[in-house]
Design the sequence.
């Protein structure tokens, strides 16, 4: 067993135990995040020199899909933390940056991304807010539409147009502490799935030091595309497939145990049921293989990597819609009525598709790449 597998084995029981309250009551899975912290897994992508594991893309896929199989809400909170840690580590801000890298690695601080804005919706690469230059500081006024862990993260990585932005992608990224004056969390998350992920709207009217900027002014778009997009897309695809696997495995188990007493047979004796399961399984393992291959490409990028990342997130998001649909169909009223554990992964799996870059936007980007057109 690898060290990562050992860490997951340590954390997963608590994560499984927290899944139902997260789903039924929309509770933030604090115990699950503590279990990830105790197992050292919040430092998965953080450098070993800062106390992290120094893992790579394949590790994100393995860890996030395993966590999603136990609790989708926890997996999304975890993925947002990893994405924030990755970009902070790649462009350490001068003001308190080293301490923050270590705090994100140990899990002393939980991170998240505050990218999507009301004004540009899922087009997170084009924030409509614009930073104002102040004396040694910048003012940021932004209306963020969804921020995972909004009330629980210690630090947001927030996007905004640079003060002198000349185009919609001339953005910068800033660290904003959740406790800062001018951070307002506008409600709670009450969604179809991932109900514990606390992805609430957040209004920012903050002043942050210039040294809280990640990288140079106007480097936000590059950091989003080169650091956040690969990490988030692989992890988001892993959430989708972890949920799909959980639903399909529950359906397979149900098919063996649901009896037709009057026929002395079970669901699995129906050829249609077996065919649904086999098709779902084929879909699942094909996309798991694709995801592993794309993770390897991200670790050793070449000319095909960008297209692979775009297509893999979209493809895995769609596969999860199909596979969880199959699991619900196979388990009939038992699945629909929560007697079989397919309804939560079914609902949770609907989120990956609408999370930016959305699957449909990605298909458009991938189509543009295939046709030799500019992506933006
Ligand atoms: C559970 C959850 C957690 C989230 N967490 C975060 C977070 O932590 N941080 C963050 O910044 N954001 C987060 N988001 C926001 C997310 O990334 C998207 O920005 C958001 O879901 C988009 O919703 P919308 O209604 O604005 O979509 P819209 O942009 O209105 O899209 C509506 C439809 O139009 C389609 N569409 C839009 N543009 C195109 C295009 N160019 N080509 C083809 N189709 C297109 C979409 O695919 C979708 O089907 C989260 C969202 C959810 C649901």
Sequence:
């Amino acid at each position: 067993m690898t060290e990562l597998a050992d860490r997951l084995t340590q954390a997963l029981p608590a994560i499984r135990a927290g899944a139902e309250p997260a789903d039924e009551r929309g509770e933030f899975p604090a115990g699950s995040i503590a279990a990830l912290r105790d197992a050292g897994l919040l430092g998965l992508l953080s450098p070993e020199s800062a106390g992290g594991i120094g893992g790579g893309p394949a590790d994100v896929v393995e860890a996030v899909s395993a966590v999603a199989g136990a609790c989708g809400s926890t997996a999304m909170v975890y993925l947002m933390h990893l994405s924030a840690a990755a970009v902070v580590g790649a462009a350490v801000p001068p003001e308190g940056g080293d301490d923050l890298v270590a705090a994100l690695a140990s899990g002393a601080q939980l991170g998240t991304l505050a990218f999507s804005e009301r004004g540009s919706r899922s087009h997170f690469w084009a924030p409509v807010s614009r930073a104002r230059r102040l004396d040694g500081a910048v003012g940021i006024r932004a209306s963020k539409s969804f921020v995972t862990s909004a009330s629980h993260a210690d630090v947001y990585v927030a996007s905004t147009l640079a003060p002198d932005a000349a185009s919609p992608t001339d953005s910068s990224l800033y660290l904003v502490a959740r406790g800062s004056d001018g951070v307002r969390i506008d409600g709670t998350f009450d969604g179809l799935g991932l109900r514990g992920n606390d992805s609430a709207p957040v209004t920012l009217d903050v002043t942050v030091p210039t040294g809280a900027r990640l990288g140079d002014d106007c480097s936000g778009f590059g950091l989003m595309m080169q650091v956040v997009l690969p990490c988030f897309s692989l992890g988001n695809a892993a959430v989708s497939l972890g949920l799909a696997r959980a639903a399909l495995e529950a359906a397979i188990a149900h098919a063996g145990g649901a009896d037709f007493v009057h026929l002395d047979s079970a669901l699995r004796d129906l050829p249609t049921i077996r065919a649904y399961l086999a098709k779902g399984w084929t879909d699942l393992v094909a996309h798991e293989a694709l995801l592993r291959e794309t993770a390897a490409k991200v670790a050793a990028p070449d000319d095909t990597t960008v297209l692979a990342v775009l297509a893999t997130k979209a493809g895995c998001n769609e596969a999860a819609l199909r596979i969880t649909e199959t699991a619900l169909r196979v388990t009939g009223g038992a699945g629909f009525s929560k007697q079989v554990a397919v309804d939560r992964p079914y609902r949770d799996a609907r989120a990956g598709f609408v999370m930016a870059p959305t699957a449909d936007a990605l298909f458009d980007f991938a189509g543009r790449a295939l046709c030799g057109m500019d992506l933006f």
